[in-house]
Amino acid sequence: MGIFSKRNVSNLGEKKKDMPEGLWIKCPSCGESLYEVALAKNMKVCTHCGHHFTLTSAERIASLVDEGTFQEMDANLDSVNALGFKDYLGKVKAYQTKTGLTEAVVTGRAKMEGIPVVLAIMDFRFLGASMGSVVGEKITRAIEAATADGCAVIIFSASGGARMHEGILSLMQMAKTCGALARHGEAKLPYISVLTHPTTGGVTASFATVGDIILAEPKCMIGFAGPRVVKETTHSDLPPGFQTAEFMLEHGLVDMIVPREKMREQIVQLLSYVSVGNKVDATARAA
């Protein structure tokens, strides 16, 4: 009989976790482990490589508007299953419970450095921020409210595209939103579109890319079809950086790439150039 008894796994007691859950997150770009509290304080931008993590609509609004000025609009609009798509409403209810949102976009009036604006913020957590009838209706109403108020409308896009559960009804939202934007433009009022990761499909093919000024966050994906589909369709290799914000800037779709920490400052500066009130004041001073 040996002097030392052989130990097994059960003798080691309860396994200890190497890292508490919910405290650290790995950056998908550089692989660094980031402390979640510090990441949140840095507006969810990696301190090592500058990767922009996805923001919720609430986080986005808090980072942009003057404190206490956001007034949500049309919060109670809810989807219907017009096409009888199997378990569609059950899926919508599940995402409502999970996210605390009624739909994939949050709209409302607010002020940025005292300048009145109307915002529409898409939230990718809700069914990939796909655009169904409610999303299109809320965005259209937000645009119409900005037109009525005589102020700028600002839309932050992040979407997988049109919502397949609603078929042609979802595709109708492309024309409806663009029609409202056309009337907004006829009123000589500004529209600032901000593209975030990812902005694809019918959203890219409609309101997201018709802004008077189009901004984008660094390295975000922008496109209609995915790169694999494009490659298989064209039977050719795609250029480096295809469908990134930097590629779109180089080819003229995007006017400016703005890091998240400078987004509010940049939008306020643009609003100071194009807002109706400032133009009137400038005209009065010149006279």
TrEMBL record:
<comment type="similarity">
    <text>Belongs to the AccD/PCCB family.</text>
</comment>
<feature type="binding site">
    <location>
        <position position="27"/>
    </location>
    <ligand>
        <name>Zn(2+)</name>
    </ligand>
</feature>
<keyword id="KW-0276">Fatty acid metabolism</keyword>
<comment type="function">
    <text>Component of the acetyl coenzyme A carboxylase (ACC) complex. Biotin carboxylase (BC) catalyzes the carboxylation of biotin on its carrier protein (BCCP) and then the CO(2) group is transferred by the transcarboxylase to acetyl-CoA to form malonyl-CoA.</text>
</comment>
<dbReference type="GO" id="GO:0008270">
    <property type="term" value="F:zinc ion binding"/>
</dbReference>
<keyword id="KW-0862">Zinc</keyword>
<dbReference type="Pfam" id="PF17848">
    <property type="entry name" value="Zn_ribbon_ACC"/>
</dbReference>
<protein>
    <recommendedName>
        <fullName>Acetyl-coenzyme A carboxylase carboxyl transferase subunit beta</fullName>
        <ecNumber>2.1.3.15</ecNumber>
    </recommendedName>
</protein>
<dbReference type="InterPro" id="IPR034733">
    <property type="entry name" value="AcCoA_carboxyl_beta"/>
</dbReference>
<dbReference type="InterPro" id="IPR011762">
    <property type="entry name" value="COA_CT_N"/>
</dbReference>
<dbReference type="GO" id="GO:0016743">
    <property type="term" value="F:carboxyl- or carbamoyltransferase activity"/>
</dbReference>
<feature type="zinc finger region" description="C4-type">
    <location>
        <begin position="27"/>
        <end position="49"/>
    </location>
</feature>
<keyword id="KW-0863">Zinc-finger</keyword>
<feature type="domain" description="CoA carboxyltransferase N-terminal">
    <location>
        <begin position="23"/>
        <end position="287"/>
    </location>
</feature>
<feature type="binding site">
    <location>
        <position position="49"/>
    </location>
    <ligand>
        <name>Zn(2+)</name>
    </ligand>
</feature>
<keyword id="KW-0808">Transferase</keyword>
<keyword id="KW-0067">ATP-binding</keyword>
<feature type="binding site">
    <location>
        <position position="30"/>
    </location>
    <ligand>
        <name>Zn(2+)</name>
    </ligand>
</feature>
<comment type="subunit">
    <text>Acetyl-CoA carboxylase is a heterohexamer composed of biotin carboxyl carrier protein (AccB), biotin carboxylase (AccC) and two subunits each of ACCase subunit alpha (AccA) and ACCase subunit beta (AccD).</text>
</comment>
<keyword id="KW-0443">Lipid metabolism</keyword>
<dbReference type="GO" id="GO:0003989">
    <property type="term" value="F:acetyl-CoA carboxylase activity"/>
</dbReference>
<dbReference type="Pfam" id="PF01039">
    <property type="entry name" value="Carboxyl_trans"/>
</dbReference>
<keyword id="KW-0444">Lipid biosynthesis</keyword>
<comment type="pathway">
    <text>Lipid metabolism; malonyl-CoA biosynthesis; malonyl-CoA from acetyl-CoA: step 1/1.</text>
</comment>
<keyword id="KW-0547">Nucleotide-binding</keyword>
<dbReference type="GO" id="GO:0009317">
    <property type="term" value="C:acetyl-CoA carboxylase complex"/>
</dbReference>
<dbReference type="InterPro" id="IPR041010">
    <property type="entry name" value="Znf-ACC"/>
</dbReference>
<dbReference type="InterPro" id="IPR000438">
    <property type="entry name" value="Acetyl_CoA_COase_Trfase_b_su"/>
</dbReference>
<dbReference type="GO" id="GO:2001295">
    <property type="term" value="P:malonyl-CoA biosynthetic process"/>
</dbReference>
<feature type="binding site">
    <location>
        <position position="46"/>
    </location>
    <ligand>
        <name>Zn(2+)</name>
    </ligand>
</feature>
<keyword id="KW-0275">Fatty acid biosynthesis</keyword>
<dbReference type="InterPro" id="IPR029045">
    <property type="entry name" value="ClpP/crotonase-like_dom_sf"/>
</dbReference>
<dbReference type="GO" id="GO:0006633">
    <property type="term" value="P:fatty acid biosynthetic process"/>
</dbReference>
<keyword id="KW-0479">Metal-binding</keyword>
<dbReference type="GO" id="GO:0005524">
    <property type="term" value="F:ATP binding"/>
</dbReference>
<keyword id="KW-0963">Cytoplasm</keyword>
